[in-house]
Design a protein that fits this description.
The chain is an alpha+beta fold and 72 residues long. It has a single domain, classed as Alpha-Beta Plaits (2-Layer Sandwich). The protein is 19% helix and 17% strand. The protein has 3 helices and 4 strands. Strands 1-4 form a two-stranded antiparallel sheet. The chain is globular. The protein starts with 12 loop residues before the first helix and ends with a strand.
Length: 72
């Protein structure tokens, strides 16, 4: 039986990230400007977080004027 602490080891990194950008995003770019590792970029309709670069620091969530960044 797998313990709950190891369950996340089998999820793709994107699903393990603590922060995700929702459809409330209006592409203002405030989050990307504050990201210390440049993990946020303009996607086709909204900004997106690169799961491989994200360090889950929360700077984006604190900066977003539309509360479009949510904890996963």
């Amino acid at each position: 039986m797998m313990s709950s602490s190891s369950a996340g080891l089998f999820l793709p990194k994107e699903e393990m990230m603590a922060h995700k950008i929702s459809d409330k995003c209006v592409s203002c770019g405030a989050c990307a400007a504050q990201c210390p590792v440049e993990a946020i970029s303009q996607g086709s309709n909204t900004y997106v977080i690169d799961a491989d670069k994200c360090i889950d620091c929360g700077a984006c969530k604190e900066t977003c004027p539309n509360e479009a960044i949510e904890q996963g």
